[in-house]
Specification:
CATH class of the domain at 383-519: Alpha Beta
Distance between the termini: 89 Å
Keywords: Ion channel, Ion transport, Membrane, Transmembrane, Transmembrane helix, Transport
Helix content: 40-55%
Organism: Glycomyces albidus
InterPro entries: CASTOR/POLLUX/SYM8-like, CASTOR/POLLUX/SYM8_dom, NAD(P)-bd_dom_sf, RCK_C_sf
Domain CASTOR/POLLUX/SYM8 ion channel conserved: 266-360
Oligomer: single chain
Main location: membrane
Radius of gyration: 35 Å
Number of helices: 20
Shape: elongated
CATH superfamily of the domain at 383-519: NAD(P)-binding Rossmann-like Domain
CATH topology of the domain at 383-519: Rossmann fold
Largest sheet: 6 strands, parallel
Number of strands: 22
Length: 624
Amino acid sequence: MSDPTFKQRARYWFDNTMSKGTKALIGWLTVITLALTAIGALFLLIVGEGDGVSGTLWTSFIHILDAGTITGDAEVGYPFMVIMFITTIGGLVILSSLVGVLTTGLDAKLEDLRKGRSLVVEKDHTVILGWSDQVFIIISELVEANESEKRAVIAILADRDKVEMEDEIRAKLPDLKTTHVVCRTGDPADPDDIAIVNPGQAKSIILLTSAEDDPDAQLVRSLLAVTHGGQGDLKCHVVGAVAESRNLPAARLAGGRAAHVVDANDLMARLMVQTCRQSGLSVVYTDLLDFGGDEIYMVEEPNLFGRPLSQALHSYRTSSFIGVLTKDGRCIVNPPSNAPLQPGDKLILIASDDSAIRLDGSRPVIDESAIVARAEAGNRPERTLILGWNAKTRMVLEQLDQYVAPGSVTDVVTDHPEAAEAIRKIGPTMRVQGLNFKQDDTTDRVLLESLNPGSYNHIIALCSDDVPPQLADSKTLVTLLHLRDMSQRSGKRFKVVSEMADDRNRTLAQVTQADDFIVSDKLISLLLTQTAENPHLSHVFANLFSPDGSEIYLKPADHYVRPGVPVNFYTVAESARRRGETAIGYRVVAEAQRAPSYGVHLNPDKAVQIMLNPGDKVIVLAED
């Protein structure tokens, strides 16, 4: 084949230049404009109609840019008018082309902006990778957390249209206060796309998974892309949650040291078991996990170094001491009160805000005459009824087996197609409790009455995962309404804990007057947000949710102070300390049906007088 000709080379060069887009087109139009200006001026000089070189060039240029200038050419010579007419026609073609090029270029730029592919030039922002219903809960909590900042930024990268994401956020969260949300379109598991949201300068990264067949696979890919995908040395921490416990080791390996991955189902099973045995506990956990009320903070207090922790317990009037974060990173909840606070250790406190944490130098007033020392009753066999079945039920049964006394019995009633085989496999693994199974529809009133729910110590209503979430919540609501009506007719209150798949159904569920509501996605979202703001909190909540060590209990108030006697919370906290426990609040049984606190008073002012009556509870951190 012969070598390309000059014409072919020139054409190839021209095509490559034109393919560079709007900038190249504007460049060519500029060159053509200058060339036409020079040609017009040259012809004017040749025919003797020019006014010097610079003046002639200016006259030619003005005729190209402004077609109206030709109306004044009738007073000059015929050659001038002909040359300028031709120049003006060329100018019209150039200007028309320029308008078209600019319009096309602007449309292309607007389309690029709509696609959300531009770099997020922010620093110390929060990055959310992925999209699900959890994103609205996380954004609302981050808005609360960032309220004291002048300008906070949340950058979201998801495989969705940028404008659609912004419209949904604007519709569900109209008031973002001081927080600015930036949306970008891309694959949350692609390192190149992740680079758009500038993770290298972010303060934290939250990973969300979509409702696909295998969400954990997406989570692992995102973890690998973030921590090993060429993002450099990440200074921020990464948080996420797996849906299946068996995928937790792989996710933690993918995330490495920079990531904090939690097991969503296992965590919810632990919460459900603890809550069913401690009425009001879900309110306590929700208050600790969201940014709207009291939160957990970690502060260093040099004034208390070398002093026993019992002094830290009474040194904060409006904050509640719950533990210590040692200088080597260990988290100790409800530590021995006689242990000294070492230099470098941080106190773990519950407070309404970090500005509310103030060391109180005054001596606490403790009423010794109001303190009582009543022994705890031994654990007795319990009967638990589980209505419904989903992926968490196996873990719920395993957790129950670690809490209940020998001789306890749990009855499972559901029409889930996989439940019978699962119960057959789980039964032999139970150490202290017996399992019974009945396959039936939990929304059937006749069935519920035949179960005699008033004879059970605890009732757990679960959302089935073999139907869509809204239908599952509807069936749960029907079951709860039946239980409420049966409770009112019998005059006996049932201790019911229910699970709502969708937080929007929580308000509807409140009319059933069940004791507690566990909303899976919401609590997981709250936990991820808290951990993103403070990674050390993952260790605190891991201790609180575990059956080993200290957990949150609501115990009879008359085991701590004399009922009907006005006391301050310093006295209650001191009584709990002498039992090896840490008091963080109380619950008034007379207010148990009043939303949103349901009688729970967390982190009260310790100097304010209160009166605890029979049936009221003290909220403590204890080992049993």
